[in-house]
């Protein structure tokens, strides 16, 4: 019953997290696009305090958008705010972190040989998110913040360092999720602590008719919002990274995440600069080089297969027993692993035929790269991996023999 309850909580919080996240990231993309696409307002509008304007067509109608230098002469009766998308995304994401990785800390947060207890690991997890925000916020209030390129490099380096640290403390998948939680915490902290308070100050000044509002406050909030915009694509990859164990399951998973994030940031920068009128076409090949280089570096190393004994010490039932006991917590019609509601990749191993049909993939994941089972939570032994290797070699030998017979 506990597992069933956990599944439902997982479903509800994940659905809420994805829905709110789409709304938040969509708003971030739109307003950054809008900021870059605004054109200088005509003289008549400038006299009214309008800084820029934009015309758009959508949904069968025309839209006119105006941005004021600070505030209009008269405040509207209805003013729309954009904050709950961010708050709900972070709260639901933290809920998922607790449901999956805190509730089952001994199985999903920690590796079997971790020196941390479940309680200490949870404390480290929560404390690291708070510390990450404090460090980032402190850096944003230093002179370093004025140098955009240097600040970005330092911030990127610190996040990569955090990814490395998480990889030393937590299971592979948990390490990636914690980098995502860290980035999400920085983003929601910007909204809660900087962007919304600055907007409230702006609105209060406008309602009082106070023209002494410091524009630097709004500019600082705009820069924090831009940080959030660059965070989005790396964060989106982390959200879907569970489908790609070749990344988080690698020994250098933190470096792989850094390279993928760099490629994502380059693409995001291309669109942001294009919105401002500069088309930096070189960013696309640069991102492609990063991705292709990464694919080359982490490609599976072809290990020599063990010698086959004259009489292989296994049969079909043994192979089924190994795969179903070690892999079917995830690869089943109804996975028992709370990380998955359906079998990853649609791969279901419930009999010998279904296992043999995916022999190449099983061999690659369990023998060559050994990134499966996930964090080896089902404790597949080296002997079992050797048995799978011998079985795979025998299958390949049988296929070669059949081809030779058919050709003759």
TrEMBL record:
<feature type="transmembrane region" description="Helical">
    <location>
        <begin position="278"/>
        <end position="298"/>
    </location>
</feature>
<keyword id="KW-1133">Transmembrane helix</keyword>
<feature type="transmembrane region" description="Helical">
    <location>
        <begin position="84"/>
        <end position="104"/>
    </location>
</feature>
<protein>
    <submittedName>
        <fullName>Membrane protein</fullName>
    </submittedName>
</protein>
<feature type="transmembrane region" description="Helical">
    <location>
        <begin position="150"/>
        <end position="169"/>
    </location>
</feature>
<feature type="transmembrane region" description="Helical">
    <location>
        <begin position="252"/>
        <end position="271"/>
    </location>
</feature>
<feature type="transmembrane region" description="Helical">
    <location>
        <begin position="175"/>
        <end position="196"/>
    </location>
</feature>
<feature type="transmembrane region" description="Helical">
    <location>
        <begin position="12"/>
        <end position="33"/>
    </location>
</feature>
<dbReference type="GO" id="GO:0020037">
    <property type="term" value="F:heme binding"/>
</dbReference>
<dbReference type="InterPro" id="IPR010389">
    <property type="entry name" value="Urate_ox_N"/>
</dbReference>
<dbReference type="GO" id="GO:0009055">
    <property type="term" value="F:electron transfer activity"/>
</dbReference>
<keyword id="KW-0472">Membrane</keyword>
<dbReference type="InterPro" id="IPR036909">
    <property type="entry name" value="Cyt_c-like_dom_sf"/>
</dbReference>
<feature type="transmembrane region" description="Helical">
    <location>
        <begin position="116"/>
        <end position="138"/>
    </location>
</feature>
<feature type="domain" description="Urate oxidase N-terminal">
    <location>
        <begin position="4"/>
        <end position="297"/>
    </location>
</feature>
<dbReference type="Pfam" id="PF06181">
    <property type="entry name" value="Urate_ox_N"/>
</dbReference>
<keyword id="KW-0812">Transmembrane</keyword>
């Amino acid at each position: 019953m506990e597992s069933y309850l956990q599944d439902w909580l997982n479903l509800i919080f994940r659905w809420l997290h994805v829905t709110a996240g789409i709304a938040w990231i969509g708003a971030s993309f739109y307003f950054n696009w809008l900021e870059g696409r605004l054109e200088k307002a005509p003289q008549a509008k400038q006299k009214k305090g309008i800084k820029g304007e934009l015309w758009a067509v959508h949904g069968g109608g025309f839209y006119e958008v105006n941005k004021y230098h600070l505030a209009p002469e008269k405040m509207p009766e209805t003013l729309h705010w954009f904050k709950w998308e961010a708050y709900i995304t972070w709260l639901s994401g933290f809920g998922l972190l607790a449901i999956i990785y805190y509730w089952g800390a001994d199985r999903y947060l920690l590796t079997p040989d971790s020196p941390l207890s479940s309680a200490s690991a949870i404390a480290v997890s929560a404390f690291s998110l708070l510390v990450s925000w404090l460090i980032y916020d402190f850096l944003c209030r230093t002179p370093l913040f004025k140098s955009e390129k240097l600040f970005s490099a330092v911030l990127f380096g610190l996040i990569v360092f955090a990814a490395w640290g998480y990889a030393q403390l937590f299971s592979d998948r948990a390490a990636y999720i914690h980098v995502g939680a860290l980035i999400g915490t920085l983003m929601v902290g910007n909204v809660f602590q900087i962007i919304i308070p600055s907007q409230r100050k702006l609105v209060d000044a406008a309602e009082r008719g106070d023209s002494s509002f410091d524009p630097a406050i709004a500019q600082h909030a705009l820069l924090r919002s831009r940080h959030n915009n660059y965070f989005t694509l790396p964060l989106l990859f982390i959200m879907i990274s569970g489908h790609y164990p070749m990344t988080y399951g690698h020994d250098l998973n933190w470096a792989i995440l850094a390279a993928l994030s760099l490629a994502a940031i380059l693409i995001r920068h291309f669109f942001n600069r294009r919105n401002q009128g500069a088309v930096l076409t070189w960013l696309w090949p640069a991102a492609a080089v990063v991705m292709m280089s990464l694919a080359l570096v982490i490609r599976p190393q072809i290990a020599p297969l063990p010698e086959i004994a004259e009489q292989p010490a296994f049969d079909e039932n043994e192979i089924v027993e190994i795969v179903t006991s070690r892999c079917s917590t995830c690869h089943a019609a109804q996975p028992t692993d709370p990380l998955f509601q359906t079998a990853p990749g649609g791969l279901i191993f419930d009999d010998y035929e279904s296992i043999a049909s995916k022999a190449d993939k099983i061999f690659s994941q369990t023998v060559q790269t050994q990134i499966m089972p996930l964090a080896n939570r089902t404790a597949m032994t080296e002997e079992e991996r050797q048995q799978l290797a011998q079985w795979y070699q025998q299958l390949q030998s049988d296929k070669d023999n059949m081809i030779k017979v058919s050709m003759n």
